[in-house]
Amino acid sequence: MTEEVVEKGTEAAPDLTFVPEVAPENITKTAFEQRMEDAKVAANDAFWAKVAEAFPETTTGDFPPDAAFVWNSTMEYAIKIWVELNAPEAANLPQKEEVEEAAGADG
Q: What is the pLDDT of residues 3-57, one digit of tens each?
C-alpha cells in the first residue's frame, strides 16, 4: 500500500500555517477585560500559594502548558459567570429591570 504525497500549499493540501502577526501594543482591552485579567492573575497567584502551603515538600511549581491553558480558560469562564450573576452592570450586561421590561413589552 502506497501513500499519496500531496504538496503543501496546493488545493488538496492548503498551507494553513499563515497567522497574521498582531503586535501586542496593538491589542487593546476593554475596562472589563482588564479587570477580569487582573482578577484572574490575582486569584491564580493566591490559589497556587495555598496549594504550595498545603504541600510544603514540593520543590518546584511546574505545571504543563496544556493544563495551564485549560485552567486559565476555566478561570475566565468562572469569573464571567460570577460577574453576570452578581454584578451584571460591571460587564455592561442588561439589568434585571431592563430584561423584565423587554419581556413585558413582547408579551
A: 565 555 555 555 555 555 666 666 677 888 888 899 999 999 999 999 999 999 9
Residue 57: what residue type? E
CA distance 33 to 78: 14
Q: Which H, E and C letters describe 40-105, residue by residue?
A: HHHHHHHHHHHHHHHCCCCCCCCCCHHHHHHHHHHHHHHHHHHHHHHCHHHHCCCCHHHHHHHHHH
pTM of the model: 0.58
Eight-state DSSP code of residue 12? S
Hey, where are the domains in the chain?
24-106
